[in-house]
Structure formats: C-alpha cells, structure tokens
Amino acid sequence: MGNSIFVVIPAYNESRAIRSTVEPLIAHGYTVVVVDDHSIDQTCAVLQKLPVYYLRHPINLGQGAALQTGMDFALQQEAEFIIHFDADGQHQAEDISMLMEPLQCGQADVVIGSRFLRWEDRQEVPTFRQLFLRVAVLVNWLITGVRLTDAHNGFRALTRSAAQKIYLRENRFAHASEILVQIRHAKLRYVERPTKIVYTNYSKAKGQSLWNAFNIMVDLLLSRFIR
Amino acid sequence: MEHLQLVKLILILLVVGLVFLYFAKIRSQLLDSLIVLLIAGVGIALVILPEMATGLAHLVGVGRGADLLMYISLMGIMFLLILIYSRLRELEANITHLARDIALNRAAFLTNDRKNRTPAAESSADSRLSDEG
Question: Is residue B20 less than 8 Å (CB to CB) from chain A?
Fold first, then answer.
C-alpha cells in the first residue's frame, strides 16, 4: 500500500535538513521523490545510497515547477496517491496517514494541511506569522474563491485522478494559490486536516518574507489577466 | 470640471480594461505586430509633421500637441510592456518544459543497485552510450 503513495519533496539547497526529512518517510514505507531544483550545495550528496528517486532540474525554476516535475514523475510511475511535503523538516511523516484518510475513504480528492484546526498546532506558530497568515487566508479567498483556514501550507495529499487534473504553471511560490484555483475549476472535492508544523530556526529562515508575499500577489493577479 | 474628471476616469478605466481584454482573450501574433507597427507609424508621422500633433490635440480637446503625444506614448509603452511580459511568460513556460523533460529523463533511484534504476533513467543512460559509440 505504502509504496503506491508517492511523497514529492521539492528541494533547493536543503543539504542540512533533507536527509532527516527523508529518512522517516522511507521508514514509513512511502515512495520518496526528491526534486532538486538545481541546488548549489550538497543536497544530492547527502541523499546518496538512500532508496529515493532523485530528479534534478538543469536550471533553477522555483518550488512550483519542482512540485509539478515531481507529480509528473509520480504519475509516470503509476502513483495512486501523491503527497506534497516540505524539505526543511517542518512537516511530520506520521501526519501523512491522517491526510490520506479522506482520500482512501473516497470522501475527498485533495486534502490540505492546516496549522489552524487544532489549538496545540496554532500555539506553535509565531505570533507575527499568525497575523500574516490570517491576511493571506483572506487574500487567497478573494483571489481564488476557495476558503481555507490556512494559507501556503505546503502539506497536501492528492489522488491520482486529482493530480492528473492539476498542472502548475506558476513556477515560483504563487503555485500554492494557483493550486486552489485549479481545484475549484476542476470541481475537486477538498477537505482540510490538522497538521503539526515544527518551526526550527532553520525552517523559519527558509520561510516566506512579507516582501515575497507581495511578489506572490502580483504574480497571481498578472497571471489571471495576461496569458 | 468635476464632470470632465469623471469622464477622464471612465476613459482611463476603459482603456485599461480593453488592454487586459486584449491580452486575456483576443491576442494574436498578427494583431500584436499590427499594433506595434501602428504605434511606430504614429511616432514617425508626429516626428515628420509636428504641427499635426497640435491639430489632433485640438480635435480631441487636449490643449497642446506635446500633451497628446505624452498620452499616446504612455499608452504605447504600457502596451509594449504587457506584450513583453506575456512573451516572457511564454518563454519561461517553454524553458520549464525543456528543463522538466531533462529532469524526468535523467531520474535516478539513488542506490548502487543498477537493477533498481527507473526505466527512464536506464533508457537515457543507454542513449548516451549509443551516442558515444
């Protein structure tokens, strides 16, 4: 069962965290696909001899593009389910089974992780980030028409048929909103499930800045009007 | 005066709306080139016949020819900017496709065991071998 579940991990210069992110996933029996977005550090070297699929972009394209490459590969390899997973260690391998539940019962086509469904998860999120995410939730709702409790949570689970209906054109971070637009257009059934996010100094440094959020919005708005 | 401002605002919104509509729906290679030629043509005509600008300006109710010129150039520049932006996006989409295909073809399973490598990685390794031979 586990090996038809493909965990797609976009990685860009993640040599410090990637191995400890991948190892629990392998232990759980999932098939791991690491998409190296042309890292210039040792991301590939630290993965050597681990039983994972390794793909490398010949140029740096962005997280959205890496996710799409990983999904294309997983579909080629007859994946039944596809998980989006962050490389920096903030998502927990144990949570995947909870995300998979609605898919396996046939209740949903896409499951999206949320930091704001359980009180104890919310406590983990730094105050400023909480405020920032509240605004992002509203903006996402306005732009995509999909109302969630969390924004830019990279932890998602999709069925094979849902993944086939999604094609990310936003190479950079706007893909997180783009995927919601496509979920709505393809009339996919989606639910949220609580996920525990572990904030380390490493993952915080890797996180989105306010300025980046502005770039994401501009990317999204322009792409909606100009093809 | 109040009225005039409102009219101008509506006109501006109309132009912006038209440009977006054009880029979202009507776009074609031929029309792109025609509009660029038109902009260049107007520019050349105004250089050769500067007094024409003043005449035209009076016709549409703008005070001076130089003002009219500025309005037209602003619209032209806006159009070209959006044109270049959308070309860049096309280019980026093409490069993404290429890079993705390369990454998929070179996909590897990271063990030493050759049997475990993916068919895709296998065939690309084979084709590289045959290229050398």
Answer: yes
